[in-house]
Amino acid sequence: MSSLKERLHADVVAHTKERNKIALTTVRNILGEIETREKSGKAPVELDDSQVTSLLQKEAAKRRDTAKIYTEAGEAVRAAAEIAEAEVIEAYLPRPLTAEEAGAIVDEAISALRSEGVEPGLRQLGTVMKAVTAKIAGRFDGKTVSEMVRSRLA
Asked: Residue 135: which residues within 8 A CB-CB, separation 6 or more?
């Protein structure tokens, strides 16, 4: 079992003791979604932390989108409930990177290519993106990272 899933399971107990109904329901729903993903398909699989993180990001985004729809429809109470759930989910996500931190990781990957004796150009875009994506892993927008890499390799 991955450490993020272990933390979610432990927090179910903690939220039950605290009688925090919103957090308890949200975490239980997330654990249910994880189990569904693990059991769907031909063979059961065990989600690792990066896959669980990706699922958490999607679930938080879903709730933010739903809250926006409720707000536009004049349902402030329902929108607030969705935002509260999104905040519970986002507490489990890693801290997002700033543009400067992401840029430093891109520069580091490009300098690693230079140290291997390869002159970086657009032909090495895939190599650089692979190295950068492994380090950033959902903590910064992928499209923006791709644009950063392209501009620095051009």
From this structure: 105, 109
